[in-house]
Design a protein that fits this description.
Elements: E1 26-30, H1 41-50, E2 55-58, E3 62-64, E4 72-77, E5 83-90, H2 97-114, E6 120-124, E7 140-145, H3 159-169, E8 172-175, H4 178-184, E9 191-193, H5 200-204, H6 214-217, E10 223-227, H7 236-245, E11 250-254, E12 271-275, H8 282-287, E13 291-294, H9 309-315, E14 320-322, H10 326-333, E15 339-340, H11 344-354, H12 361-371, H13 376-390
Parallel strand pairs: 1-2, 1-6, 2-5, 3-5, 6-7, 7-8, 8-9, 10-11, 10-13, 11-12, 13-14, 14-15
Antiparallel strand pairs: 4-5
Helix pairs in contact: 1-13, 7-11
């Protein structure tokens, strides 16, 4: 999962430049992820919607230590005219969820009235947003269930209950992978799997000559890399054992550390934590790795994940070794595009094999053939088609 958004802010496409087939109204997205934190599924999809119409990306509220702060809205322009909305609240409301939700609802409703947002799609990444949207009346409700959030560390106890309420409201449910789809399809009659996809051109840059990033240039080879959020999903025991067993390999870990104590991370001399990087920088780092890894633990938080980094690594031309995450095994392991290993000895053997895999022309061709079948553009268009088919007809004479 890329770790920061692109820096440039392209101008949103005009109506004339937009696809003639696109007929969706305004889109309001309610998310648990900060737009500027990591560049992943919400950013890939919402930036595409924003090329064709107004998109409002509503983040969780920001609480001020000053209890005298009045509830107010911060509006942050981003790519293609997308607007990130953050409601600011006094600290005293943090302990009163109902009051906080009501305050957010009032601030957001006032803003949307000012912006003449009357016909819109509500798009949810978190069921917890239902509390602040009880009075909203969208023409279509979409739940893009990208993760099993209730299994994550520090998940709110009421999240499962809220999700059931969202299932009752949603017109469409999308899931971030096939395993998650299998878990959710029994809960909604109009659920569709949309696994992690790829921006091939961006990550394909790693197959060409690129300048070596300064903080990686001094690290010896071979380099075994990982990028992504460093949290409870990372198997730090596996990382530590691999580093101990293979002291001649250099392990490069890119990504912010969240929800876990950095002091618990293994600190062998051949493990290099480089922190979070901009989206644009990732191909240059990948270019300098011999092998890319998905070092995920086997726990509740990884049971339903569909890592975006799997096709990103492959598009960069890097051989990949992964723990047995179901949405990596299917299809990547089954197609023998990614090596799957459950234990440290197996993982080490798989890396040994991967170190020579770039010389395997058959593997590269099969990988590229598969990657040609997926893209974020295709995923977005398939979602748009489903949404347009579910939209109620507009009254005669109303504006598009």
């Amino acid at each position: 999962m890329p770790l920061s958004p692109p820096a440039e802010l392209p101008v949103r496409a005009s109506h004339a430049e937009s696809s003639a087939a696109y007929q969706l109204p305004d889109l309001i997205c309610f998310a648990h992820l900060h737009w500027d934190f990591v560049w992943q599924r919400p950013q890939h999809l919402m930036s595409r919607f924003a090329r064709h119409g107004r998109v409002f990306y509503v983040e969780d509220a920001f609480y001020h230590a000053d209890d005298q702060v009045e509830p107010h809205l911060e509006v942050k322009p981003r790519q293609h005219g997308l607007l990130v909305l953050v409601v600011h609240l006094p600290q005293r409301l943090r302990a009163d969820e109902a009051a906080a939700d009501q305050a957010q609802a009032e601030v957001l409703s006032a803003y949307f009235r000012e912006q003449d947002v009357t016909r819109y799609v509500s798009w949810y990444y978190t069921p917890m947003a239902l509390g602040k949207t009880a009075g909203f009346r969208p023409v279509l409700t979409v739940y893009d269930c990208m993760d099993e959030l209730a299994n994550f560390r520090f998940a709110p106890p009421v999240l499962r209950e809220r999700e059931q309420a969202l299932f009752r409201q949603a017109d469409l449910v999308f899931t971030g992978g096939h395993t998650l789809y299998e878990a959710k399809r029994e809960q909604h009659p109009d659920a569709h799997p949309f696994p992690s996809s790829i921006d091939k051109d961006h990550f394909g840059q790693a197959r060409r000559e690129m300048a070596e990033p300064a903080d990686q240039a001094g690290i010896a080879h071979p380099r075994i890399g990982f990028f992504g959020v460093v949290d409870e999903r990372l198997d730090i025991e596996l990382l530590g054992e691999l580093a101990t067993n293979h002291s001649d390999w250099q392990f490069v870990i890119i990504g912010p550390v969240v929800k876990i104590d950095p002091a618990t991370l293994p600190r062998q001399a051949n493990i290099h934590y480089l922190g979070g990087k901009d989206y644009q920088e990732l191909p240059a780092y990948l270019r300098g790795w011999e092998v890319a890894t998905l070092l995920f633990a086997d726990n509740e938080s990884t049971k339903f994940i569909s890592p975006t980094k799997t096709p990103e690594y492959l598009a960069a031309g890097r051989p990949v070794v992964s723990t047995p995450i179901r949405d990596v095994v299917r299809p990547y392991g089954d197609l023998n595009l990614v090596q799957i290993a459950a234990t440290a000895p197996e993982f080490g053997q798989a890396i040994e094999k991967a170190l020579t895999q770039t010389q395997d022309a058959d593997w590269r061709q099969r990988t590229d053939d598969y990657l040609a079948t997926i893209s974020w553009d295709q995923t977005w268009q398939q979602m748009v088609d489903l949404m347009q088919n579910r939209l109620p007809a507009q009254p005669a004479g109303s504006a598009a």
